[in-house]
Amino acid sequence: MSVTTVGPGPGPVLVVGEALVDDYGDHAVVGGAPFNVARSLAALGVPVRMLTRIGDDAAGARVRADFARFGLGTEGLQVDRARPTGRVLVERRGTDHVFRILDDQAWDHLDAAAACAAVDGLQPSALYLGTLAQRGPVSRAAITALRAALPAPVVVDLNLRDDQVVPPTVATTLQGAQAVKVNEEELRRLVAWFVHPAQAVTPWGEAGLGAAAEQLLAQFRVGELFVTRGAAGSAWLGPGGELVEQGPGRPPPRWGDSVGAGDAFAAVVLAGRWHGWNRPTLLARANDFAAAVCGLDGAVPHDLGFYADWRRNWGLG
């Protein structure tokens, strides 16, 4: 399966993965890590195309409405007549959330031929993907086909969910990625799986956990690694695994919840790569934006005016 790529200049960011509804019991919101990233990119003025699959149901209509609200084209939006739009049952426990991801949803059945057809003629600047959408063989095959067909650099947001993805799928996803974003807990899990369990419990730092990343990057031929560390900020590790830059943490202006903070960080990583920001600028802006999203109730704002100051302050028009 091949895709013709044409056109000069930086192309859109191609985002592939799940769009779903987070069900809190008394209310539901549209979510899915890749869809959160796509919506933020669009609101920040970065051209983006989202590839996902929804059901022909009320939840799918809500996803469609957010495509329209954020100005996202529907060329990559597939509709499954047999399976429901993805749903995640969410239980809030204090400031934390417990998620139960339902099985066999529409986004598990992304059609490879339709996905490749939806990007034919594009020259994406990046292909963004995670691991959750690859838990099932059908969507995993579609994402594999896209990676094979497109020359675009791959940016991975690992976004591990317990009991959803096995290490071999993670290994395949990491292989040859130009950039990978993980949180510190995910980095420790990768080190335990692919380097050595003892190194996964070492303290953070160039001589500790950060050093183990060198083996990871070399093993999977990863270009660079972004690590989010909660209140401690973030770090950028270069292609040799060296700790090149650390960004300070930012307290949120108010506390809403942490849902979508990692997706907000990933969106700014993609936006910064698209605009060519240097890494200190990119890290600082990603930290600031993620902290601001922690001040929201949910992963994306209800009022799109939220993005206006960021676009103005960052010179995005």
Which strands sit side by side, in order, in the main sheet? 5-4-1-8-9-10-11-12-13
Structural class: alpha/beta
Tell me roughly what share of residues is in helical segments. Answer: 25-40%
Instruction: Tally the beta strands.
Output: 13
Number of domains: 1
- The H-and-E topology, N to C, reads as EEEHEHEEEHEHEHEHHEEEHHH
CATH class: Alpha Beta
How would you describe the shape?
A: globular
Query: Regions with pLDDT < 50 over 5+ consecutive residues?
Result: 1-9
Strand content: 15-25%
Q: What is CATH's topology name?
A: UDP-N-acetylmuramoyl-L-alanine:D-glutamate ligase
What's a quick, concise take on this entry?
About 35% of the residues lie in helices and about 20% in strands.
Q: What does this protein look like?
A:
The chain is an alpha/beta fold and 317 residues long. The protein has a single domain (13-313), classed as 3-Layer(aba) Sandwich (UDP-N-acetylmuramoyl-L-alanine:D-glutamate ligase), CATH 3.40.1190. It has helices at residues 33-43, 58-69, 112-118, 137-149, 167-174, 184-194, 209-220, 261-275, 279-294, 308-313, and strands at 13-16, 20-23, 28-31, 48-55, 77-80, 86-93, 96-101, 126-129, 154-157, 179-183, 224-228, 234-237, 243-247. A 9-stranded mixed sheet has the order 5-4-1-8-9-10-11-12-13, with helices on both faces. A 4-stranded mixed sheet has the order 3-2-6-7. The longest helix has 16 residues, at 279-294. It is globular, with a radius of gyration of 18 Å. The termini are far apart. The model is unreliable at 1-9 (pLDDT under 50). One of its GO terms (cellular component) is cytosol. GO terms for molecular function: kinase activity. Keywords: Kinase, Transferase.
